[in-house]
């Protein structure tokens, strides 16, 4: 492909995403107030529980088979590597910039967790529809590419809410403990749920030993109760309810429908008896991408209204996300191809490479709000990283297209 064709093919989907994001920012302005905080909250809830799971489930059910699972096994590994690489670079950045304690979890999270769902769901189908795309038939590319992006979104969410969530939680707890003690009961009570010590298995090991003068049956019930209590504590500490989000459940349903032939024959295909369910699910899922992009644009407005952040930290995050991580990703994906871990499918390789080049995950804003640490700084980071993403993604998309073609 010619250089200009590659650039146009890569820039069009990024420009489409940027224009919809700009529209969302405009609608969120005070003088317009069509996408205010309350509206974004309710709209985001609908998208989170309805549209996004519908999009994921429909695309996975239509394209996933037992044979395709063999092909996709490396994607969870690749996404895990994006978190590991980002964490390493984030740790180096914290040491170089001497990041304040209350921002360390945020900085590490921004470097580790990328937007592995929303942007991929926008960029990949748009690239497939371009005339200069190296991925063959547009319809097949669109369906397969959306499947890759949907799976990426679900896996990324699992890693985000297990790893980054607890990183920010621990950072928040440590910063509160290091801060001067205050006698204001209201200020301490707002963080009391996050200043508890980390869960220790050893603390519960000996609790199953029966106390004296207690029958064996009562001792078993006591042990069972303690075990149940410990499991509840684990659930609260690891936020398992958030890990098994609607998107994750949609992945499980999509895999089940795609792999189990009797269910697939009932739902998938023009002649399927219950094809109306699949069509309805797909119709709901089609609304997810534009609504998600509008919400992103509306959320970025907050970054214009709050104070700044240490410039070295902001510049460092941009360098990590848009220079260091993509270059490392090229080495990892090329190495995986060389050693036979990944097939030489251009679209699949393009998705794996793009996972290293996306901006920070928008859900980091939600996580910082949960702990009341770094909310304003997170808004500023999101604003500037997404502004630079319009240029960075265009360059990396064009380069990745050339690399896989």
UniProtKB/TrEMBL annotation:
Lineage here is: Eukaryota, Viridiplantae, Streptophyta, Embryophyta, Tracheophyta
Native organism? Rosa hybrid cultivar
Gene name tied to this protein: PILS3
Protein name, entry field: PIN-LIKES 3
Q: Where's it found, cell-wise?
A: Endoplasmic reticulum membrane
Coiled coil ranges (UniProt) are none
What the protein does?
Involved in cellular auxin homeostasis by regulating auxin metabolism. Regulates intracellular auxin accumulation at the endoplasmic reticulum and thus auxin availability for nuclear auxin signaling.
Fetch the Pfam families from UniProt. Answer: Mem_trans
Q: Provide the transmembrane region boundaries.
A: 6-29, 41-61, 73-94, 106-127, 147-168, 243-263, 283-301, 313-335, 347-371, 383-404
Q: Does the keyword Transcription regulation apply?
A: no
* PANTHER family attached to this UniProt entry: PROTEIN PIN-LIKES 1, PTHR31651
- Superkingdom assignment: Eukaryota
Q: What is one process in the GO biological process aspect for this record? A: auxin-activated signaling pathway
Q: Which InterPro entries match?
A: Mem_transp_PIN-like, PILS1/3/4/5/7
Q: Name one GO cellular component term.
A: endoplasmic reticulum membrane
Record key words, sorted: Auxin signaling pathway, Endoplasmic reticulum, Membrane, Transmembrane, Transmembrane helix, Transport
């Amino acid at each position: 492909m010619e250089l200009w064709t590659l650039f146009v093919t890569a820039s069009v989907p990024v420009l489409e995403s940027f224009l919809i994001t700009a529209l969302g920012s405009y609608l969120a302005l005070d003088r317009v107030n069509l996408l205010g905080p309350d509206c974004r909250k309710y709209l985001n809830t609908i998208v989170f529980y309805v549209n996004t799971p519908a999009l994921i489930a429909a695309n996975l059910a239509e394209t996933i088979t037992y044979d395709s699972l063999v092909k996709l096994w490396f994607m969870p590994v690749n996404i895990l590597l994006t978190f590991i690489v980002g964490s390493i670079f984030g740790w180096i950045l914290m040491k170089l910039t001497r990041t304040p304690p209350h921002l360390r979890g945020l900085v590490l999270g921004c470097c580790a967790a990328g937007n592995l769902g929303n942007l991929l769901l926008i960029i990949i189908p748009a690239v497939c529809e371009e005339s200069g795309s190296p991925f063959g038939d547009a319809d097949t590319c669109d369906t397969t590419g959306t499947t890759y992006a949907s799976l990426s979104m679900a896996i990324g969410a699992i890693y985000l809410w297990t790893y980054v969530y607890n990183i920010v939680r621990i950072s928040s707890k440590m910063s509160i403990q290091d801060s001067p003690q205050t006698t204001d009961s209201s200020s301490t009570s707002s963080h009391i749920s996050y200043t508890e010590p980390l869960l220790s298995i050893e603390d519960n090991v000996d609790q199953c030993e029966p106390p004296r003068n207690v029958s064996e049956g009562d001792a078993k019930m006591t042990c069972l109760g303690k075990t149940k209590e410990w499991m509840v504590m684990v659930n609260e500490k690891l936020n398992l309810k958030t890990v098994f989000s609607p998107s994750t459940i949609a992945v499980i349903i999509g895999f089940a429908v795609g792999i189990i032939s009797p269910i697939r024959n009932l739902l998938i295909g023009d002649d399927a008896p219950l094809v109306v369910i699949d069509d309805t699910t797909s119709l709901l899922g089609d609304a997810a991408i534009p609504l998600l992009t509008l919400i992103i644009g509306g959320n970025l407005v907050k970054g214009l209204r709050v104070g700044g952040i240490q410039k070295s930290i902001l510049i460092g995050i941009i360098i990590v996300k848009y220079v260091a991580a993509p270059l490392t990703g090229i080495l990892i994906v090329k190495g995986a191809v060389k050693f036979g871990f990944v097939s030489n499918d251009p679209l699949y390789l393009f998705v794996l490479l793009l996972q290293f080049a996306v901006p920070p995950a928008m859900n980091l804003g939600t996580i910082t709000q949960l702990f009341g640490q770094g909310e304003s700084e997170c808004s500023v980071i999101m604003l500037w990283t997404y502004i630079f993403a319009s240029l960075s993604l265009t360059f990396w998309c064009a380069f990745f297209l050339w690399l896989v073609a």
